[in-house]
Design goal:
The model is unreliable at 1-10 (pLDDT under 50). The chain has one domain (13-455): Cytochrome c oxidase-like, subunit I domain (Cytochrome C Oxidase, Chain A, Up-down Bundle). Helix 6 crosses helix 13, helix 7 (234-248) packs antiparallel against helix 9 and helix 9 (277-291) packs antiparallel against helix 11 (302-324). The chain is mostly helical. It is built from 15 helices and no strands. It has helices at residues 13-41, 54-86, 93-115, 129-151, 160-179, 192-227, 234-248, 263-275, 277-291, 295-300, 302-324, 327-333, 337-367, 374-407, 412-449. Bound molecules: protoporphyrin IX containing FE (HEM) (2 copies). One protoporphyrin IX containing FE (HEM) is lined by residues 123, 207, 211-212, 254-255, 273, 276, 280, 317-318, 321-322, 324-325, 330, 333-334, 339, 342-343, 346-347, 350-351. The site of one protoporphyrin IX containing FE has 23 residues, from helix 1, helix 2, helix 13 and helix 15.
Length: 457
């Protein structure tokens, strides 16, 4: 990146543009989450507003957290880390900023498309065909920019974060169109069981081969720098990377254990879901040994603090995930709020918190000033952490109540009064997360545009 005479000008416009994208959609996504949560304990809530009903608010919420908040947040860090690690400029900052602008237009189209009733009705693949095309174009642009940057690099060694980011965008760019059956614009689906298999091959790849590697790339970059410690083991980092690619690519059928898919697919999915303990623990041992005894440094850097918290949630979501892949456990946990709890621990607790960490880590380094308010960042940290941990506890309890009742032959609707107080608790906890998102948006926008620097509180 060419140095500029004007100190105020951000040196990494693409990273900044993705920071802003992520932070704004985080606030919007949690607002839609609150609307969805409201419907679950008060079904008449906003009943007359068709485009805000649960059936629309939920997919809007889910798509905005995945593609509006978490992915752009992790990409912001990616567009900062890649030039740094490769000791070169980003191939094209103009293309990067254009991609970020198009990203925002795509998210707006996603809301309008689903709100207007054009959902394709497949979980994590609800977006209408035109928006699917836009997402594929976005990934192609990101892949092109990253691969060309790698091509012109001055550093010959590719640090593991570069491997993870490249794998994440290439694998998602190629599997998104397949999972969304993009060659069938009218339905975006195959028929019957093959469709379910394809959907969950893609669906789990969104968590396992987009959010997970991008999150790990950020952790591998932020933690050693913040603690000024060399990475514990480069060999372990390679074992972690390749074992993730080998094991995580084909476990999507663990979402379909209750479905008549071929048994061999279930067996592969179960065995490799348990084997996931290898890539997970190899990475965590590597990262935790790197930062061992450096708690003060982690606390000093709010970015590292978020990222470290993300590694803790990564541990829990994966241990829980391997357990949930066992048929005997899933008989209780499937189709109920246990899975929603797991989803929030993974997508928010691990990937979302890591994305926030990446943003807070890069902002002072890009702007050359401390973030606008460390106090507000810490407040956001605690609001988000309290919210997620509360979600995990409440939703797990609700899941167990539902699972046990259903196994005992109870009908779904007769369990509802019993779980209503928990839904109220979940919505209350959601307020803390939403508040955290809005406070973070204010702090991040002020850090970029209206930051007095060292005088800031
Ligand atoms: C060892 C790693 C993991 C394993 C073995 C695993 C396993 C599972 C299983 C078996 C389910 C389906 C449960 C059911 O429908 O009964 C599930 C759902 C889910 N997982 Fe994981 N998980 C892992 C890690 C993660 C991570 C890291 C994330 C997020 C980044 C994540 C996000 C999700 C989400 C969002 C769902 C909900 C899918 C739905 O709506 O049905 N998982 N996971
Ligand atoms: C204000 C905070 C939030 C609230 C109130 C909230 C609420 C909800 C609700 C009500 C659902 C639908 C659950 C159902 O169908 O029973 C949901 C699903 C989901 N939310 Fe959130 N959410 C919040 C924040 C987030 C954030 C920040 C993320 C990720 C970064 C996230 C990720 C997800 C995912 C992946 C699902 C799909 C779960 C599944 O299908 O199993 N949520 N959320």
């Amino acid at each position: 990146m060419a140095s500029t005479a004007n100190e105020q000008a951000p040196s990494y416009p693409t990273a900044i543009a993705f920071c802003l994208t992520s932070t704004i959609w985080f606030a919007a996504a949690t607002s839609f989450g609150m609307i969805a949560a409201g419907y679950l304990f008060a079904p008449d809530f906003l009943a007359n507003i068709g485009w805000l009903h649960f059936g629309k608010a939920r997919p809007i919420h889910v798509n905005l957290v995945l593609f509006g908040f978490v992915t752009p947040g992790l990409l912001a860090a990616g567009f900062y880390m890649i030039p740094k690690l490769l000791r070169t400029e980003l191939f094209s900052e103009k293309l990067g900023v254009f991609t970020a602008v198009l990203w925002n237009v795509t998210m707006l189209c996603a809301i309008v498309g689903i709100g207007a009733g054009y959902s394709q009705g497949r979980e994590y693949a609800e977006l209408p065909w035109t928006v699917d095309l836009m997402i594929v174009v976005l990934f192609v642009l990101v892949i092109f920019n990253i691969l060309m940057t790698i091509r012109q690099r001055k550093e010959s060694i590719l640090y593991v974060s570069v491997w993870y980011i490249t794998a994440a965008v290439v694998l998602t760019g190629t599997t998104y169109g397949i999972g969304n059956v993009i060659w069938k614009p009218d339905t975006g689906a195959l028929l019957g069981i093959p469709d379910a298999i394809l959907l969950w091959f893609y669906g789990h790849n969104i968590f396992g081969l987009l959010l997970t590697p991008m999150g790990l790339a950020v952790a591998y970059y932020v933690l050693p720098i913040a603690t000024r410690s060399p990475l514990y083991s480069h060999t372990l980092s390679l074992i972690g990377f390749w074992s993730l690619i080998v094991v995580y690519t084909h476990i999507g059928t663990h979402h379909l254990l209750q479905v008549p898919v071929p048994t061999y697919l279930k067996v592969i999915a179960i065995v490799d879901s348990v084997a996931m303990v290898i890539p997970v623990m190899v990475v965590l041992i590597n990262l935790w040994f790197t930062v061992k005894g450096k708690w003060a440094e982690i606390h000093q850097d709010i970015g590292a603090k978020f990222v470290f918290a993300g590694t803790i949630y990564y541990f829990f979501v994966n241990i829980q995930g391997s357990m949930m892949s066992l048929p005997v456990v899933q008989r209780v946990t499937h189709f109920n709020n246990w899975v929603v709890g797991h989803a929030h621990i993974g997508v928010l607790g691990f990937a979302g918190v890591t994305a926030l960490g990446g943003i807070y880590f890069l902002l002072p380094r890009i702007t050359g000033k401390p973030i606008y308010s460390r106090f507000l960042a810490d407040l956001q940290y605690w609001l988000v952490l309290i919210g997620i941990t509360g979600f995990a506890i409440v939703l797990t309890i609700v899941g167990l109540i539902q699972g046990q009742a259903w196994i005992n032959g109870e009908t779904i609707y007769r369990v509802l009064p019993q779980i209503q107080p928990y839904y109220i608790a979940r919505a209350s906890l959601g307020i803390t997360i939403m508040l955290g998102a809005y406070i973070g948006a204010y702090n991040i926008i002020r850090s970029i545009f209206f930051n007095p620097g060292a005088t800031a509180k």
